[in-house]
Design a protein that fits this description.
alpha/beta, three-stranded mixed sheet, 29% strand, 6 strands, GMP Synthetase, Chain A, domain 3, single chain
């Protein structure tokens, strides 16, 4: 499966890599937020000491910035997409010819996992669809 990026998203990725030295796999723009997917092990570089790199990117783009760490393990990737919500586990199930992730979320973090107007779960679904062809994510 190939990921399609807009010219703007490619520009954002280039800027993010230049400013952080982190390797970016994907970028999704939604409303006033840009979500970057960085290679496994690159979160420290992406964030920077005390969040300095993220702050610089945020100011440069004049948008909110979120970073998700990629994982070769699809369940781990889904869990990463919900950070900083506390995820207790992810079960991947084949259903009706499609793939569904059942995500166990700590009750105290359900609201954080869903996000305002469902924006966090929508982000996780979009990234899971783009990288692992998930059909749905269900929070338990």
């Amino acid at each position: 499966m190939s990921i399609r990026l807009t010219e703007e998203e490619m520009r954002y990725m280039s800027l993010f890599e230049r400013m952080t030295d982190a390797v970016v796999r994907d970028c999704v723009e939604r409303d006033d937020t840009v979500v970057f997917v960085v290679d496994a092990g690159e979160m420290g570089k992406a964030i920077g000491k005390g969040g300095a790199n993220i702050d610089r990117v945020r100011r440069s783009l004049d948008k909110e910035v979120e970073v998700v760490e990629f994982s070769e393990n699809e369940a781990d990737f889904v869990a990463n997409a919900f950070q900083p919500a506390a995820i207790d586990g992810v079960e991947v199930v084949e259903e009706d010819g499609g793939k569904v992730a059942y995500v166990d979320v700590d009750d105290s973090d359900k609201g954080l996992a869903i996000g305002k107007d469902g924006e966090n779960i929508a982000k996780a679904k979009k990234l899971a669809r783009r990288h692992y062809e998930f059909d749905d994510i269900v929070l338990n």
